[in-house]
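User: Let's play a game. I give you a shape written as tokens, and you guess the letters that built it. Ready? Here's round one.
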């Protein structure tokens, strides 16, 4: 099974101006990202999102607003013939000390369990270093795509991570070899 676990902010949608996205109107796709997911789907990949949403724990927005944001995302994906199977999110603020806030491993563990796949057969693709760190705890393939919230590529990426300018560039490199990832490893 081909399973890609994507970061949300900075990978599928542009970073929110305030550091979070609590309203559907603030959700703006990264150019080419919806099409990139569609290409993954057509090549037989399952695509799942793992995202930290500390704005919930801080009370900046609520679950209904988050659901509305994701409804818009799913609509925009569908309009391009793309599908994200599920969105796994950490709702906690950083000071709550949970295991699911990336770089903690719990979101990735839940996804691996749900799909019955080994960590090493997962592709973790994201624009936050903590997304790759979480994937690294399960032995996933690590791909940095884009830039972090400050617009930079983090200096301290986990060992073995490869870098691309955006999700579309990742998919262009990944798919020609049938999605087995040989181009990237
Ligand atoms: Zn959490």
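Assistant: Ready! My guess for every position:
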């Amino acid at each position: 099974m081909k399973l890609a676990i994507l970061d949300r902010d900075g990978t599928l949608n542009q970073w929110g101006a305030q550091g979070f996205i609590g309203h559907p109107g603030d959700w703006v796709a990264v150019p080419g990202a919806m099409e990139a997911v569609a290409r993954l789907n057509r090549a037989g990949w399952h695509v799942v999102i793992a995202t930290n949403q500390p704005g919930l724990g801080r009370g900046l927005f609520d679950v209904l607003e988050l659901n509305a944001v994701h409804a818009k995302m799913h609509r925009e994906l569908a309009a391009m013939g793309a599908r994200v199977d599920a969105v796994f999110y950490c709702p906690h603020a950083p000071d709550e000390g949970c295991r699911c806030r990336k770089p903690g491993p719990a979101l990735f563990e839940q996804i691996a369990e749900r799909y019955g796949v080994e960590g090493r057969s997962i592709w973790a693709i994201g624009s936050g270093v903590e997304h790759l760190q979480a994937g690294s705890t399960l032995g996933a393939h690590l791909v940095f795509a884009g830039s972090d919230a400050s617009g930079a590529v983090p200096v301290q990426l986990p060992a073995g991570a490869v870098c691309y300018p955006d999700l579309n560039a990742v998919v262009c490199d990944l798919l020609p070899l049938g999605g087995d990832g040989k181009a990237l490893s």
